[in-house]
Amino acid sequence: MKNKTLELNQIKSLEKLLEEQRNEILSNGKTLLVDFSTSEDDLKDEVDLALSDIEQGMKMRLGTREALYFKKVEEALLRMQQGEYGQCVECSAQIGYRRLQARPTAELCIDCKEAAERNETLNAEGRKHKSLGQTLNFKS
Ligand SMILES: [Zn+2]
Fold it and tell me: Which CATH number fits domain 8-108: 3.40.630.30, 1.10.260.40, 2.170.150.20, 1.20.120.910?
């Protein structure tokens, strides 16, 4: 497999994609936007919010799924700043531009992703068998 690094204009367009996604999540949780844009002093005037409270509130307002995705988007943008974006976290291979376009928060190359998915399937199978055993035990 070729280990071609991303071109600057490709990174720029992926960065735009990530920022659009981030803005979309933020506009879905308008209160969150207020939380983040208010200065510390203003926050004290309203409610004394600890960061964990904000995170908790974010999860409640956005749903855990969105909060997790938001974190992934933030992390991807951070990796971009550090010049590590687009590298597989498992094997350091360059993740293909097409894959990143479809999934700009991707952290694994397609090979590692497939390996991880195989593991997940195996674990899910294991759980299924276990619960099946429990059901049988319960019936007898
Ligand atoms: Zn990999």
Answer: 1.20.120.910
